[in-house]
Amino acid sequence: MQTKIFTEENIEEAGEIIRNGGLVAFPTETVYGLGASAFNPDAASKIYEAKGRPSDNPLIVHISDKALIGKLALEITSRAKKLIDSFMPGPFTIILKKSDNIPDAVTAGLDTVGIRLPSNETAVRFIAAAGVPIAAPSANISGKPSPTRVDHVIQDMSGKIDGIIDGGECSVGVESTIIDASGERPVLLRPGGITLEMLREIVPETMPDEHIFKSVSADERPLCPGMKYKHYAPNAEVIVVEGEKDAVQAKIRALLKENRGRITGVLTMYGSAYDEAVILSAGDSDRSYAKKLFAALREFDALGVELVFAEFCEKDGYGAAVKNRLYKSAGNNVIHV
Ligand code: AMP
Ligand code: MG
Fold first, then answer.
1. pLDDT tens by residue, 253-271
2. pTM for this prediction
3. Among 14, 20, 177, 231, which residue has the fewest nearby CB atoms (within 10 Å)?
4. Please, are residues 79 and 200 in contact by the beta-carbon 8 Å criterion?
5. Which of 279, 330, 296, 290 is CA-nearest to residue 314?
6. What residue ranges line ligand 1, CB within 6 angstroms?
7. How far is the CA of 272 from the centre of ligand 2 (A)?
8. What is the pLDDT of residues 119-145, one digit of tens each?
């Protein structure tokens, strides 16, 4: 299949592909999404095939106008309404009881649906051009780091989908905050650009799900099915070294010595220098770490790095989103110093 690259200029044509049952990857403020019509079960099924995504992992439905929420959801509690009013559009997905308009192929058989209105203008124009809500997970091969630049999408999806819209670099860099508001008390299922603190300012009762920072065992059924799968993992082995600057640097120096002979890399947030390792910078704030993490993991792979040490220390509200992705990319291999 020939994959066509679209820009702002021919976005209408990209929308038409969606309307006709095709697949188009598109930029959002979080990461690039791989879209299909949310009203077309066959099209939604093609997403799973292109990504190699497990069939029990539901897709988020993207809309261009809040008014559509009433058509996709059965019930909107007063707390859900407050959250919608406060955080949409933005890097925020709300889970609500689904209406019959959404096929099972989109929600993997669940009776709830995740709904998101992006703030990225290209995304909103594209969804409006499609004229239907767009079901989309991240546009990466399942298990790999999510794409934050168009070249990442081309690398994973070229030849497998109809089109890719080039919208430059994603500003947030990690996937949306997911909040389950289908019950009375909202539950944070995945941290992201909208932090727990921000959510609690609007709905103080919001609780984080226990699985956010730990792995899910095979016999558990987490609320967010995506949680139980290997995620964000580059080819390289990743080890997180977490703590204050001096201790982290000393530990990584020792680890580099122990691993002489392997091609090593360090993702630094302290601006550290190490001999004989490929160094990439995550910047010095959690916000920049979120923006750079996935691109850095892909870059280490491109450079043939076999073992990555990631410096980490949670600094602000964004830190939870970084920590969740980083721990998963490392398969929870974390050294606290
Ligand atoms: P991705 O966009 O690739 O990050 O994948 C979407 C994430 O949203 C996955 O982790 C899904 O498990 C989660 N998700 C989507 N719809 C629902 C839903 N109805 N209930 C719970 N989690 C959902
Ligand atoms: Mg994903």
1. 999 999 999 999 999 999 9
2. 0.95
3. 20
4. no
5. 290
6. 57-58, 60, 95, 107, 110, 112-114, 137-138, 175, 178, 189, 223-226
7. 30
8. 999 999 999 999 999 999 999 999 999
